[in-house]
Structure formats: structure tokens, C-alpha cells
Amino acid sequence: MTRWIGKSEGNRKIQFSFVFPVAAIILLVLIPASLKSASLQNDTLIAYTNDFKFKEGVFLDFKNVIYNAPISKGRIITDVDYNSNEFFDKVLAKSKLYFIDNVGNKISVNTNKIWGYSRNGFLYIRVGNGYFRITLVGSCSHFIAYQTYEVSNNTYPYYNSYNYPYSTYSPSVSTQTEMVQYVLDFKTGRVLEYNVEGIEVILMNDPELHTEYMQLSNKKKKQLKFVYIRKYNQRNPLYLVKLK
Questions:
Q1: What is this structure's pTM?
Q2: How far apart are the C-alpha atoms of 91 and 111, rounded to whole Å?
Q3: Distances (CA, A) of 155 to 8, 15, 163, 170, 171
Q4: What gap in Å lies between CA 132 and CA 142, rounded to an integer?
Q5: Torsion (CA) 226, 58, 110, 61 in degrees, nearest 10
Q6: Fewer CB in 10 Å around end: N or C, the chain?
Q7: Which of 25-29, 103-107, 139-143, 240-244 has the lowest mean pLDDT?
């Protein structure tokens, strides 16, 4: 579930998103203990490597990602050219996705509830109204998205309609877009900003590594964020479910 929050900062109004774990997610895919739960004990698990390819299609939720079980192109009902390189972007730009389920029923879902998709073996995750490729896949994944915010060009804040009712001045508003880095916790499905606080949250899954990171100075924490992502992924390999 994605929750949008508005925030004012100076003369700009920012929109940003936090993606929280869905209660129905049954995975906890970091080995060893969480993978040996009753819900997954009969599943075959495979370790993620750089050679792993996600099946092409639309992932309705994070659980589908863990099981590598998307809605394939062939089951999607659309007038978009199936051979188009922008197939998924065009299909998911619409308000609803229509597809045929495993027993032949026609299903519709709101596209703003969809987790993401896979194309050419690579994962794309939804943040806001866009889909962005996850460039580093692991127990702690990393990706870049773009954040759009409004900027008010009001240079005379004391002469607005509230303080000066006879003024005809109307401030203009423009939008700007900036690059934002995120991390995805594959244990919970949470998306966090790529900053010290976000790294600290994910490292809580590995108490020893978390303690080591917390002992660093604030400057070192900022400098070594990516180093600790790699350390975390080496110590906590990502496992996915292999469908039978």
C-alpha cells in the first residue's frame, strides 16, 4: 500500500511517498529462520544471483515478486501493441488493468494499487505515478526515482489576499522534479529513503551489523551507506520461491 503525504518546506510544497508492508504478505525471505516458517516450509527456495531473471509481466503485489509469479503479457487484455517496448508503461498508465486469471475469469484491478512489473528480466517498482528500475537487487535493494513538487513564486508573502484584501497580486506556482534514492527491504516490502535513517532501519534485521553501523560517527554513516548495503546483502542473501 502506498501512502502519499504532503509537506511544506519554505516556499515549496512537496509530495512524496512511503510504501508500507501489506499485512497479507506471508513472505519473510531472509534465511534462515524466517524462511522456515510453516507457510513456506514446502516451497523450494533459490538464491538470487546476478544471472537471475524475473519473469516478464505485471506484479500485483510484493508476494508475487517473491514467488516470481507476475501476470504475463498474454493474459493482459488491452489494445496496446504487445510488441511495443513501452507496453507496460502504456498499459499501466490507464486507470485499470484487465487480465484473465488462472481459471479463465476476467479480472480488473486499479493500476494505482499495482506493485510494479518486470521487463527483460529487470524489476520496475511503482513510486508515486511512475515506475522505476531497481538497479541493485538484494535483501536490501536500491533504486532511483523522481520526486515532483510545487514551488510558489510568491516573493511578497505579506501582501496576499489575507493580509491585503485590495491586492490583485496572484503568486504563480511551478513544478520541479528531482532525483531521489530509495532502498527496498525485501524482508518486509518496505520502501525507505536512502539516507542514514533508512539504512539504520534495514540493518535492524542484522543486530550485529546494526551495532557496528551505529558506532560510526555521523559523517562516516553518511559516507558508508552503500558499503553497509553491500555488507548486509553479503551476510543476508536474498532467497526467492521457485514455483513447482
A1: 0.75
A2: 9
A3: 16, 22, 14, 11, 8
A4: 11
A5: -50
A6: C
A7: 25-29
